[in-house]
Amino acid sequence: MKDMAPFNFQADQNRICQSFRRGLASYHRSASVQAGIAAQLVRLLQQQGAPDRFQSVFEFGCGTGHLTHRLLESFNVSKLVLNDLVPEAAAALRPVLDRAPVKFRFKPGPVETLPLPQQLDLVVSASTVQWIQDLPGLMERLAAQLEPGGWLAVSGFGRSQFHELAALGSQAAAPSYLDAAEWPQLLPDGLTLMAIIQEPVVLEFTSAVELLKHLRLTGVNGQSRQSWNRSRLQEFETQYRSRFGRNGMLPLTYDPVLLVARKEG
Ligand SMILES: C[S@@+](CC[C@H](N)C(=O)[O-])C[C@H]1O[C@@H](n2cnc3c(N)ncnc32)[C@H](O)[C@@H]1O
Question: What pLDDT is attached to residue 1?
Fold first, then answer.
């Protein structure tokens, strides 16, 4: 499984965008791991003592709204600014937003270059920060827009994310897989880390075709340049089974990292 190609950030972001755009229709029902992470992130925020009501919230990488939905069901939000790289996410979010009495705006494009909303009391994002090349830079910009006492709740993935694919030679990894232990030094001064969790989730597939279908339906393998034919697929399945196969199944490891931080008052 070889996806080797020279790194070009702009080209790769276009590829990521295309991959998520293609997967948008199927993402919401196929991305069960991300749905679980979104629910867990909101619980973590509540457990850390977040208030019931937020005045001004920014969510980036909102996708089809797994986190948006959990957030609006658990907190009273007055004003919400949503962002995603893929402009078509705005339409996909409709069913979630129609159910909630919230004033919202959707801003498409890469969050790295987006003019950020100001005076925020909460910044949230699930399963997206792994796609951000300059994560310390983004965290610095976000922290600057948080009000004193404001909250940050984000999730990404650790270095074991899809480790089976990496071991078989895939270069499709996102640029910023970070373990829980790496986050404290990445957060800007003035943000206090309240809680961080890293717990792998392993899915199992009956065949390589099913596993690859899962990656395509969720759009999560956005940097893959692999094109498949019958013999490549056969070789991939044989290698996968011999290295990782368990009781006839093919495991695929997700390595979510969830954290809540707070700006000093
Ligand atoms: C795995 S999905 C997560 C979606 C949603 N937050 C959830 O929990 O289901 C990652 C999302 O991040 C978006 N994304 C990737 N890179 C981005 C960037 N640089 N700026 C904004 N959104 C980005 C993708 O388009 C995709 O919708």
Answer: 42
